[in-house]
Amino acid sequence: MEETLKILVVDDDEVDRIAVRRALTKAGIEMDLSEVSDANEALSALNTTSYDCVFLDYRLPDQDGLTLIQHIRSSEIKVPLIVLTGQRDEQIAVELMKSGATDYLSKSRISAETLAHVLRNAIRVYHAEMQVALANQQLRESHEQLIYKNQELERQQQQIQMQNFKLLEASRLKSHFLATMSHELRTPMNAIIGFSQILLRPKFGQLTHQQADMIERILNNGKQLLMLLNEVLDFSKLETGRLDLKPEIFDISKVINTTVGEMRSLAEVKNLSLLVQTDLQNPLGFNDPVRIKQILINLLSNAIKFTESGDIWVELKELPGNRVAIIIRDTGIGIAPKDFKHIFEAFRQVDQSITRKYPGTGLGLAIVDSLVQMMGGKIFLESEVGVGSLFRIELPRRVTSPTLAIETPTLKREKGEQEQIFCSAQNPHQSSSQANKAPIGYPK
Ligand code: ADP
Asked: Ligand 1 centre from 144 Cα, in Å?
């Protein structure tokens, strides 16, 4: 042992104390040795000084060794304790160890070797015990920390659930408000439109040019407002899963051509050329033609709205895997890649300012997105600011509709070949927020 050990010998017999000191000195132990002769002195020494080891006589005048050990350990005094027993005391060795003695040695066996051996052992055992106690303490602390963190996490989870619940409730109220308002506003709006149309009929009397002009404005604005209300109503239905597709067999090319025809005047007002190319070997599809038309109107009116000069192309193409693509391309203002994802979100527009140049609700693409998802299709967007945009909708030629789960209509190809349509039951009320988002990619 290289360092000087602070050792306390507790024994009322001076001869025994001398024997211990001699043996330790003989063993060559570097030490600072103190001696006391009873339990009280021992306790006060231990309370004031920190020792590396204590040799303790089992039989003391004021207390037996067992009681003293219990006293020391209950006072949380941490020190290796070696009990020196007389020959008759050896049977209580087990009791001593249980009470907290580190080791014991019969006084009859005291020698330089045994004492040095017991001392080294006791210090080693004691250090090991301390390390175990420390590790245990650390374990207990980390266990407590874990419990605390767990509780904290549970609390946060509850808060998140609560906020989620509130958000869902707010969203439900918003959808309900949108649905009710748009529905309620449609009735007076239809009356405004209807009466304006009646007033414009010649049989209701001759109007001055100025009066006719004003009523036409009322009519046009009314139609515009009704369109916006319908958009809001559709969106709230889609959001709450209350919009069902009504699939039927129809001529896709025809729907595309008719819709483009209806929108042509809007393009002409802005001097834009509107070109359409339908290139389907088999023009028949099984889908909801009203909703296909709605998708096209939304995309085409955007193309016209956001294009100041140049051309707009509408293309209908056959795709492998019995799918079709509807492509709308313009030479308009274009969209920056950072906005690609956002513009498909409800009420999101690239220009969110109140002074924005282009009017709109910001619902058109959200509706398109939801409808395309309901149809099992995908939307792809390519665009460059200042150059133009291309929206490509890829749809299965036949949608699988839960409402028509048992029917298996047939599509007749032009060549006379027949194709079965199998409809499988799926969740009809899957809203755009519940459904998997259609990827918005940039096809080459
Ligand atoms: P709205 O047209 O009513 O604003 P949409 O949901 O139809 O709402 O479109 C969202 C936004 O996406 C538009 O406000 C516009 O910023 C952008 N956008 C859509 N289509 C085009 C397009 N063809 N060219 C440029 N920007 C477009």
From this structure: 55
